[in-house]
C-alpha cells in the first residue's frame, strides 16, 4: 500500500519535497490543498507542476472513508460509522455546543483496555489507525460542516481506542491538526483522553504542548478501579497519580479527571468522599467531569439516578473539588462510544 498523504507532518512533507528536487515552499502549497481547500485528488492541485503531481500520485494515496451509517440526534449530534480500506469500521462524532462544533475522533480499531462498562472493547483491538486515518475523520466532519458554512472548532481524542497506545500516530495527528497551514485548530481547543498509560503520560508531559489532558479514573481506589478497568493492574492508581503530578509540574496545565457513574458500583457518597480526599492530597490543579454511564446492552450495569448524581457532585464540591456533570448529547442515538460499531459487527457477522 502507498503511504497516506495525510500521514505526513509538514516536516516530513518538506523533506519529501526536497528529495524530489522541488523548492520547500511546495510543501506549504500541498498542505493548503489538503487542509484548506480540502481536495480529494492530486490532479486538483493546479498550482503545482504536473511532474510533482505525478510524483505525488505515484508515492501517496488519499484516505477514503466510506460512510456506512449516519445517525443524527435531536440535539444536533451526528454520529458517523465510517468504513476503512480493509473493511474495518470506526466511529466519529460531531457535537454541537454554544461555543462551536467539536469532533470526537477514534485512534484504534477496537480497544484492548477492557473497561467493563464500555462498548468499545467488545471484540478487542484489531489494529492502530495511522495518523492520516485520524486526520481524515476531522476532514470528513469538516466537509459535512462546510455545507452549513461552519467549521470544526475543537477536537476531543476520546473515541474508540487508547490514544497513548498509538502514541506516535497520535502525535503526528496533533502536529498536523495544530499546524497553521494544516487544520489550524488551537492547541487549547484539543483534549486527549487516556485510561492511564503511565509511560506515555510522562512522554506527553515532556512534549510541552498546550493540549489538554484528561484521565479516565472511574474509581477512587485500586481495588474498585481494577474491577472496572483491568489496565489498573498494569498501571496502579498510585503510579498514574504520580505521573499526573509530573505532568502538572512540567506543564502547569489543569488535568481533567473523568469519572463514569455506574449505579450501585462507584456512585455512593463514600466513593465521592474518598475521591475528594485523593484529589485534595495532590498538588495539582484539576477538574472532575462526572459522566452518567450510557446503557450498553452487553454490559450488566445500570444508570445512576439523577438524585444520586447530584449527591455525588455535592460531596465533591463540599470538599472544594471543582466538578461538573457532563452535558449529555446524542442520547436518542447509539450514544455510548463503540455502540454503533458493535451493532455493525454483529450484523456483519450474521
Automatic annotation (TrEMBL):
<keyword id="KW-0819">tRNA processing</keyword>
<keyword id="KW-0698">rRNA processing</keyword>
<feature type="binding site">
    <location>
        <begin position="216"/>
        <end position="218"/>
    </location>
    <ligand>
        <name>S-adenosyl-L-methionine</name>
    </ligand>
</feature>
<feature type="binding site">
    <location>
        <position position="111"/>
    </location>
    <ligand>
        <name>[4Fe-4S] cluster</name>
    </ligand>
</feature>
<feature type="binding site">
    <location>
        <position position="118"/>
    </location>
    <ligand>
        <name>[4Fe-4S] cluster</name>
    </ligand>
</feature>
<dbReference type="Pfam" id="PF21016">
    <property type="entry name" value="RlmN_N"/>
</dbReference>
<feature type="domain" description="Radical SAM core">
    <location>
        <begin position="97"/>
        <end position="332"/>
    </location>
</feature>
<comment type="function">
    <text>Specifically methylates position 2 of adenine 2503 in 23S rRNA and position 2 of adenine 37 in tRNAs.</text>
</comment>
<dbReference type="Pfam" id="PF04055">
    <property type="entry name" value="Radical_SAM"/>
</dbReference>
<dbReference type="InterPro" id="IPR004383">
    <property type="entry name" value="rRNA_lsu_MTrfase_RlmN/Cfr"/>
</dbReference>
<keyword id="KW-0808">Transferase</keyword>
<keyword id="KW-0963">Cytoplasm</keyword>
<keyword id="KW-0479">Metal-binding</keyword>
<protein>
    <recommendedName>
        <fullName>Probable dual-specificity RNA methyltransferase RlmN</fullName>
        <ecNumber>2.1.1.192</ecNumber>
    </recommendedName>
</protein>
<dbReference type="InterPro" id="IPR007197">
    <property type="entry name" value="rSAM"/>
</dbReference>
<dbReference type="GO" id="GO:0008168">
    <property type="term" value="F:methyltransferase activity"/>
</dbReference>
<feature type="active site" description="Proton acceptor">
    <location>
        <position position="91"/>
    </location>
</feature>
<keyword id="KW-0411">Iron-sulfur</keyword>
<feature type="active site" description="S-methylcysteine intermediate">
    <location>
        <position position="337"/>
    </location>
</feature>
<keyword id="KW-1015">Disulfide bond</keyword>
<dbReference type="InterPro" id="IPR040072">
    <property type="entry name" value="Methyltransferase_A"/>
</dbReference>
<dbReference type="InterPro" id="IPR058240">
    <property type="entry name" value="rSAM_sf"/>
</dbReference>
<dbReference type="InterPro" id="IPR013785">
    <property type="entry name" value="Aldolase_TIM"/>
</dbReference>
<keyword id="KW-0408">Iron</keyword>
<keyword id="KW-0004">4Fe-4S</keyword>
<feature type="binding site">
    <location>
        <position position="294"/>
    </location>
    <ligand>
        <name>S-adenosyl-L-methionine</name>
    </ligand>
</feature>
<comment type="similarity">
    <text>Belongs to the radical SAM superfamily. RlmN family.</text>
</comment>
<dbReference type="GO" id="GO:0032259">
    <property type="term" value="P:methylation"/>
</dbReference>
<keyword id="KW-0489">Methyltransferase</keyword>
<feature type="binding site">
    <location>
        <begin position="161"/>
        <end position="162"/>
    </location>
    <ligand>
        <name>S-adenosyl-L-methionine</name>
    </ligand>
</feature>
<feature type="binding site">
    <location>
        <position position="115"/>
    </location>
    <ligand>
        <name>[4Fe-4S] cluster</name>
    </ligand>
</feature>
<feature type="binding site">
    <location>
        <position position="193"/>
    </location>
    <ligand>
        <name>S-adenosyl-L-methionine</name>
    </ligand>
</feature>
<dbReference type="InterPro" id="IPR048641">
    <property type="entry name" value="RlmN_N"/>
</dbReference>
<keyword id="KW-0949">S-adenosyl-L-methionine</keyword>
<dbReference type="InterPro" id="IPR027492">
    <property type="entry name" value="RNA_MTrfase_RlmN"/>
</dbReference>
